[in-house]
Amino acid sequence: MKKNKTSDHLANERTFLAWLRTSVALMGFGFILVKFSVFLKQISLLNAEKHIIHSQKEYSDLTGLILVATGVVILILSYLNYRKTQKKITENIFVGNNSLILTVTVLIVCISIFLIAYFFNNL
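That's the Putative membrane protein sequence above. Prediction below.
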């Protein structure tokens, strides 16, 4: 008797969509950081004659770009994991994959440490 694998495929798809939401959230947050940095630069240029000085270091652009790049990497890795899992489910040889989870966790921890250091230096 052949087992119906529809629920396994649907669970795989839901997992991919969760990774997709995570990557879009990271890219969105990075985009907001970059745009906010541009906004602060424009405001300081408009108010140059009033001698308003923006004393923060210029890491907002870099941080935003890193977040967007991390979102793209997570999206690519999650798609590759989705395809690999789909193939394993079809062949009935599924074994758990912890490499994607470990990679994304390390990326997020590194970015979090960078953001904490950035915010701590700007207090």
